[in-house]
Amino acid sequence: MQTKSDQPDGAPYLRLFNGVDELQGELAVPELESPCSLESVLTAWHEATVRLEQTHEILQSEVRRLNDELELKNKELALNARLADLGRMASHVAHEVRNSLVPVTLYVELLKRRLLEDSGSLDILTKIEAGFTALDITVNDLLNFTSHREPRWESFPASVLIQEVCEALKPQLDAQSIHVETEVEHSSLICADREMLRRALLNLALNALDAMASGGELVITAFEGPKGFLLEVADSGKGLSQNQLNRVFEPFFTTKSNGTGLGLAIVHRIAEAHGGRITAANCPEGGAAFTIELPAVQMQSKRMAA
Prior knowledge:
Layout: H1 10-27, H2 38-114, H3 119-146, E1 154-157, H4 158-168, H5 170-175, E2 178-184, E3 189-192, H6 194-210, E4 216-224, E5 228-234, H7 242-247, H8 263-273, E6 277-282, E7 288-295, H9 297-305
Parallel strand pairs: 2-4
Antiparallel strand pairs: 1-3, 4-5, 5-7, 6-7
Helix pairs in contact: 2-3, 6-8
């Protein structure tokens, strides 16, 4: 006779048998008083059948939930593996391109000084510089996307950060006839990495400007919510399609002919690095809104002390 110790991994089998016994106990037909009528037998049978159907529905619901969770986790693992490969490749390419850009940019600057009297040549050099600037922006996007540094926590006024970004974009805002409206209390403080959040806000503002090539309104709102601090950037453009809403934070996804598709992916990574998140939605009156949600100051203070 085989004992419990002889069985391979006996504990799971015992738990399974115990679970079956418990289930059978729940579904067992109640004891009937003797003598019993046909009506009492049918009633007891009906009650057992109802309990069995309810248990079956519960089990089916749990199986569906577990399958959904498994599918979601598999997608996350596949995406993380893809992002890791892309990150390593992008980092290598970005460093190599930047190393090549530095001397070329210096030579262009030297050549520009020698051609101060030749306006035609200067125009050509200006176009070359513009090309190098665009390439440098792409390299910076790649490096920011592949950067995994932890936030350097500090507390600073939200209004000062927003004003700084708006001033940096003023020439482009004026050129596109875009009106800026800010809604933020001067006493509002953000606990975050200032440089990382400035980069995120700048990327969101630039994304909004791209959506309003013919002019419009840019609204930047910052306020303390019940669960933390919210920073929202909204535009009056044409909004986002359902496909764009589903994929807007994917790396390298872009609808622009000259875009890298990394701007919003960088913002997404910055929000996650702070323990927060970013969401996108269409505004009821038109346009799109991107909202960065940061944890409450108390939670951020604990991060600063850690």
